Amino acid sequence: MDPAPLRELRLVDADLLLTVEGGDVWIEGSFEARGEGFCDRCSDPVTLRLGKAFRTILTPKSRGPEGAVSIELHEEDLDVGYYDGTGVETNDILWEQAALEIPLRVVCSESCRGLCPVCGKSRNREACSCVAGGPPGPFDILKNLKGEKE
Ligand SMILES: [Zn+2]
Ligand SMILES: [Zn+2]
Fold first, then answer.
1. Which of 45, 77, 78, 113 lies 20 to 30 A from 140 at CA?
2. Which one of the ligands is nearest to 44 CA?
3. Which candidate, 46, 82, 50, places its Cα nearest to that of 64?
4. Is the pLDDT of residue 148 over 70?
């Protein structure tokens, strides 16, 4: 599994309870995972903790649409999936749930100020005196003068 944008994702703890009822597999579980990545803004290493409790139901693929209809009679907030007649891979279930929790962007903190585009220093660690966009060069000044005349 590709944990992007994380570099690595490990399951730390997991709990699964499977109940088979009329060919449907009811799954109740929870997991805790630890992800490693780099901050999207400042590139600092970031450790993330992911985890949640979930409930899902798997119905045999061979049953077709009618199988799904009977599931709709159950609770609405239940995830519904399908499984091949051969069985259910519990590891896959956990990874699938973990994958859903991976954020689209990883940041070390919501208030991360990122890297200075001029000097490249982390603005979280030191306040540099760079002006965004850099000091105006002679050509910029010419441009401005020209703009004023027109
Ligand atoms: Zn950051
Ligand atoms: Zn700077």
1. 113
2. 1
3. 82
4. no
Give residue 134 CA to ligand 2 midpoint distance, Å.
9
| Sequence-separated (6 or more) residues with CB below 8 Å from residue 139 | none
CA of 32 to the centre of ligand 1 (A): 23
Taking a 5 Å cut-off on Cβ, the residues next to ion ligand 1 are 39, 41-42, 44, 108, 112
Let me know: does 5 contact 104? Beta carbons within 8 Å.
yes
Tens digits of per-residue pLDDT, 57-109?
888 888 766 655 555 555 556 778 888 867 788 888 899 999 999 999 999 99
CA distance 9 to 98: 9
For 56, residues 6+ apart whose C-beta sits below 8 A from its C-beta are 27, 78, 79, 80, 81, 93, 97
What gap in Å lies between CA 55 and CA 92, rounded to an integer? 14
Distance 37 CA to ligand 1 centre (A): 11
Q: What are 116's two structure tokens? A: 């200075």
Query: What is d(CA 127, CA 15) in angstroms, rounded to the nearest whole number?
Result: 46
